[in-house]
Amino acid sequence: MYNALFQPLRIGPKLLKNRLFAASHGVGFGYRDPDAMLAIRKMKAEGGWAAVATEQTEIHPTSDLSPYSGLRAWDADDLPVISAVSKAIQGGGAPSAIELCHSGLNVSNLGTREVPIGPTALPTQQYLPAIPEPFYAREMSLADIEAFRQWHIAATKLSIKAGYDIVLVFAMGTLSLLHQFLNPRLNRRRDKYGGSLENRARLLIEVLDDTRAVLGKSAALGVRLSVADLLGDPKGPPEALYQLLNGKADFWDLSFFRGGVLASGSGRSDFDGDAYLHSLEAAREVFETPLTTTRFFDTPDAMNAAVKSGLIDFVTVARQSISDPFFPQKLAAGELEAIRPCIKCNICVSGDLSYVPVSCTQNPAFGEEWRRGWHPEIPKISKRRKRVMVIGAGSAGLEASLRLSERGHKVTLLEQNKTVGGRVNFIAQLPGLDRWHQVVDYRLKRLLCQSEVALKTDQLVTLDWVINQAQGYDHIALATGAKWRLDVVDRTTTRPLATDGSLPIYPPTKAINLSSGKTLIFDLEHYQIASQLALLRQAAGDLVTLATPCAEIAPWTHKTMEQQSVQAKLLRAGIQIVPHVNLSRLTRGEAELRCVFTDRAKRASYDRVILVGLRQPSNMKYALEKTRSLNGQWTAIGEADVPGTVGQSVRSGFKFALEFEEAVATEVKRTRPLVGKTQRE
């Protein structure tokens, strides 16, 4: 069915077994915790990918990504780690690829304290534009440029010594010094490295020639290239750059990071597919070596069609390789229902942008392969078969039931509603979040194939009923979720909201089908619900005011690379945004908002208030805690234990199922650093 994706392909001196390439991406472990990081890469290789790439690999102390943790190829001290990663990937059955990068203006060198460098003297530019830093880069002299070329040559030699099959030259967005030279917004030089497109491309061409000379026939040379900043540039459109670069590499991975901002190419909300497609078509007409792209083709059908049509030669995949490392293997076997689809929530990115190990909403085993010994596909069969009642068929309950049944336990899954899914059903109704329902769809389809699971919906489950039924089960997993609080108690405010009852207050789950009116939405979640609910209510005819104690709407979505596009949509829709306020009281049909800095109050009349506040576990948990007769016989999981993200609920269900009836909980291992020694010693 997907024959085009499973044809071999030669890239330079290397032969790929299929057309599915596991792209470079950060995992948050890097050189600080290499054991966990290389286990991730090995797992992907075992999953059948044509090749598996590392994350960004710094080539010099002037490209220090701290506090982010990637790989390093500064000198021979880094050889043990990068060699171990290459061997792990190859041991899993795939060629290894290393991505060499100097980040130029994108880093402040906070760890090494080296002076940042760039094509032009400008402030350093961080991943998160909401947190600018008071640091500057020095404009590189010709001697600096020559030194940079030598650093790249040295890192390339180190990569060959480490045994890599593919070396990727990184020229993608403002993340890369090479792209910064290409970018006319960032490169204002007047010498042979600035001005015309030919001059701005000079350094990239020199580096490619240098790299080719080092590699010879020992490894393939690939380039990750963003061209979005050249679109509409009369002095140097992408087509002209393609002509300059043709023949310089064994393959090209084109990306579309508009405006040099990473979020524009990897977020869910702001992506110009038509412009990108035109750029790909232009590249196809010029490049004589294989062409690929990251992010654009994100379903098996789209991937297969793109390769079959000849638009691209293979597909480079990042997030889908996280949500399902065994995607190629399942696709080749025709096991489409077993594929764990990426929902593009960018929770993975939020880990990297929080300087911690990356996690995945769909794949709770990601990042735990070495630390806890978790495997996303191979269950540990239980020695003793037990009967387990799972109450609640939301994300935690579905995941727990699926994993318990795979381990050999007999499961009864009860849901009070007529449909399963819990809060995911609500989230998926919001604008742009329909993909979230795949969290439910994937697990439900798998569950219905499990003979050891009895799913019962539309069940009235009371405390007395649970106590009476408990005798027939060995254990009860309580996955009844959480409910929204309506009292404005949050991280900073501990006093309940003062109200005389004249203005109705609705939780988000009750706000979708309201009649139109003048609506105040107050956001204490700071993630995605309030902003998307505001767009939905505005489209339904409401006059919406969206208020928050923060300086901007949904600040946490900076970590998922969505905040700028989300706030832009709100402003374009005409939604009034009121920052820096707390909701202090509701009286006489008016809402009082107080400035978090001056405490000055402003009042306005509304028809209703939608409070996107905190959540608390359902009442069933507290009732069971008071029932001594069931002590030790039940466990709260997901939001019935503690509210959090959907990914945290999935992980809670997964962890409960894996540790159920085990003697001890899974240990969290970590790499022990060497003290007083270098890696070479």
Assembly type of the chains comes to single chain
Integer tally of domains: 3
Roughly how many Å is the radius of gyration? 27 Å
What is the CATH architecture annotation of the largest domain? Answer: Alpha-Beta Barrel
- The CATH superfamily of the largest domain turns out to be Aldolase class I
Strand content: 15-25%
Q: Mind telling me the CATH class of the largest domain?
A: Alpha Beta
User: What ranges have pLDDT less than 50 throughout 5 or more consecutive residues?
Assistant: 259-265
Average pLDDT confidence is 91
Describe the structure.
With about 675 residues, the chain is α/β, with parallel strands linked by helices. The two termini are about 50 Å apart. It has three domains: about 350 residues, Aldolase class I (TIM Barrel, Alpha-Beta Barrel); about 140 residues, Rossmann fold, CATH 3.40.50.720; about 120 residues, FAD/NAD(P)-binding domain (3-Layer(bba) Sandwich), CATH 3.50.50.60. The chain has 21 helices and 29 strands. Strands 3, 4, 5, 6, 9, 10, 11, 12 and 13 form a nine-stranded parallel beta sheet that branches. A five-stranded parallel beta sheet has the order 16-15-14-17-29, with helices on both faces. Strands 20-27-21-22-23 form a five-stranded parallel beta sheet, covered by helices on one side. Helices cover about 30% and strands about 20% of the residues. About 0% of the residues have low confidence. A hairpin with a 5-residue loop joins strand 25 and strand 26. Helix 1 packs parallel to helix 2.
